[in-house]
Amino acid sequence: MTNKNLKSDNNAKIQSILREVLGDVKPCEDEKNHLTTFSKKIIDTINEMKEYPILNVVRVGSTARGTNLKNDHDIDIFLKFDKNTDREELKEIGLNFGIELVTKLNGKYWVKYAEHPYITAKIDKFSLDLVPCYDIQWGEKLISSVDRTPLHNEFLLNAYKRHEKYCKSKKYESYPNGTITDDVIILKRFLKGIGLYGSDLKTAGFSGYLCELLIYYYGGFINLLNSAKKWKAGKKILLTDILEIYNIKSPEWNTEYLENPNIYFNEHYANINLINLNNSEENNSNVIKLKEYKFLDNKYYKNQPLVIYDPSDLDRNVAAALSTENFYKFVLYARKFLEDPNIEYFYDYDKKVLNNLNDREKGYELCLKIPRNPEIVDDIIYPQMDRLQKSISHIFEENDFAIVRFSNHANESFCYISWEFLISKMPDLMCKMGPPIYSPKGVDNFIAHNPKYFVKEDRLYAYCPRKYKSVDELLYNIVEGKLQKIITYPKYVNPEEGEILKDKYIERI
Predict the structure, then answer these.
(1) What one-character-per-residue DSSP string does 387-442 give?
(2) Cystine design at 293: which of 171, 219, 248, 346 (Cβ 3.0–4.6 Å)?
């Protein structure tokens, strides 16, 4: 954790806070040794089961790289199969192998699903995922989406070794022991504290892999915050390692790694470019011919606020799950922490902000409680709740019920879709806007249906009775199925199965 760009008056305070946080959330040596010992036991047991056509066994994930938080006992084992293995055969062997292994180790197992099913288990205090994948090398086309995970692991392990070597060569002063993995741990805790850690669709935040790439790219937690405080949506990050791995010429827009003093490892690639400029003779053995590659732009990624190209799959955005709102929350809290360092940011700060917001006079609150099928995972349920809420909110606003805030949350049994309104009831009278006067057909049609019309500036308006005088009445009509034609009905979140809770607002937790 370098001391670049820290204001002198905040430097000591920030370092003290980070040292305290790290001491609190970094696993102790005993915990790490237990993880290593148990992981070795699993791999040794796997290697004894020679009747299965497994080419290689790879331990991946944060516990394999030393970037896990304290009490995170998740062990991820990937089983590599030959690329010619039939998909159905891979699924069947993967499940049978996983069940046999967990049985040998006296654990309990469940079947979970990614692109294909895999075994997850609980053995003593450890959680174990056994994921079959294809043995894909760098530059080869992926067969399944999980094939990239062992490449992620390989990339990061090499990156950390490279970073350590680089720091030693530059004699950078690091904290506390020269390992960049400590900064990853601190970033994860910071993101947990502000409610942004997790790439699931409920959280829409930062994945662990994204955290590790960001820390590696910027060279540390504070360097990352110093850059992030100035980010704007549309930010693109391209690790120079990608250019070297694939022998690619740097695109014109990729200038941050040359201009930003927070970013390490720019010198090596800069030297490659200089070699190309200074050695034009084709027979010169120093000439490295760089390939052109068109990296996809923000339009392809549907205007996702942060794009960081995946070293193992150049068209994939590692930050795809991050919402615009959460992107800017990170920008805000990066700046606020640097300006006024406080350990509170690392521990339930998002809940403190929410409690402060809710310490006020409330508007009218309504909640729609809908039964949930517990077998449907959050990554399906939450997008469907969002779609339903957006559809209903549009009808509320069309009927002049101003929404102060809204949220949704699901537990194992129910979905809760909540709103807070400025007012709950409206007068019988409403003023309806009509067409401009210079649209004769529209004017005639409007007058035919609205006899109490008048002209205001260039348009017709009319006084007419309001269809829904209360927001309760409108929501009851939705629950009773009377607005089916204009409401989005997601497959697993049906408003007609809902119960209306008055004066109730359930926050997303």
Answers:
(1) HHHHHHHHHHHHTT--EEEEEEEE-SSEEEEEEEES-SB--SEEEEEEEETT-HHH
(2) 248
